[in-house]
Protein: LacI family transcriptional regulator
Organism: Amycolatopsis echigonensis
Amino acid sequence: MAQRRVTLADVAERAGLSTTAASRVLNGREGTRLSEDARQRVLAAAKELGYRPNPAARSLRLNKTATIALISDTVVTTRFAGAMIRGALNAARERDHVVLITETQGDPDIERDAIDAMLHRQVDGVIYAAMSSRRITVPPQLLTLPTVLLNATSNRRLPAVLPAEEEAAYAVTSAVLDRGHRNVAVLGRNEAYERDAHLSLAAKLRMQGIRKALADHGHRLAASEYTEDWDVPGGFDGMTALLRRPNRPTAVICMNDRLAVGAYNAASEAGLSIPADLSVVSFDDDPIAEALRPGLTTAALPHEAMGQLAAELVLDANPEPGIRWVPMPLRERSSVAPPAG
């Protein structure tokens, strides 16, 4: 037999107060003339009885559903999705909200249906997320709700949460410069990514941070190698090309960890040891970065913190538009050493 739900009246009876008085305490309503002793009796009774507010009644009273939506292109099925979603869920849970999650796969028809479904469920706000950081077009339907962009910007005046890529690039570059490297190359240059914010925000910001760190240390970029994609084959081919240069670099900054995996393989094939012959640093902190031998020094994408902040902004009353930059911590491992000789 199902256990009867504890009601507000049960709490009030246990505390020896009226239902109205108990409701005022549990809903945190200002202006109540109850004594501190009475307030504590209500809170203790609610805890003893295991009282939980009725979400349906609360929604009717407050005209809110205690629900937010996370709508993404392909975030949900990527390897970084778990942390981003976990952050949003934790922030929502702290405020007694739940998160409805849907993925559009970049299909406009699926996106339209997903947004309609969320609006039909009368969510209190929306986190609109992108898999890779870039400028996106926000569907006009979302402008009727509190909406926060996650890992994205747009031409709309909306709050946005992004990783602090330029700051991270400065730290990554400084990690090799501070060890004495002067012949530093970049692997993964792609000018199309750097020019077009709709393709990538990270590429331009990372290059800005790299150049600033070099300039502040009194140096210039020694070389760079183009790759069409930031993947393992691109890293292998690009690293092979860098190693064929007459004055091969002593340190390489890879634009992401998958490129770094390819760079490791190319260095090994060339008979070079990391970090004795070549230092390698990178971005993202993909799980493989720690598994590599030696472990890869890399700037971590703060997906959990980003998801948490996005949810907090959605739940805040009228957050200011503009970008919130979330720091990317540097994970220092064993892929950096002073240059040989």
Summary: The radius of gyration is 26 Å. Residues 59-63 have pLDDT under 50 and may be disordered. Residues 285 and 300 are 4 Å apart (CA to CA). The chain has three domains: 8-53, 67-163+303-326, 165-301.
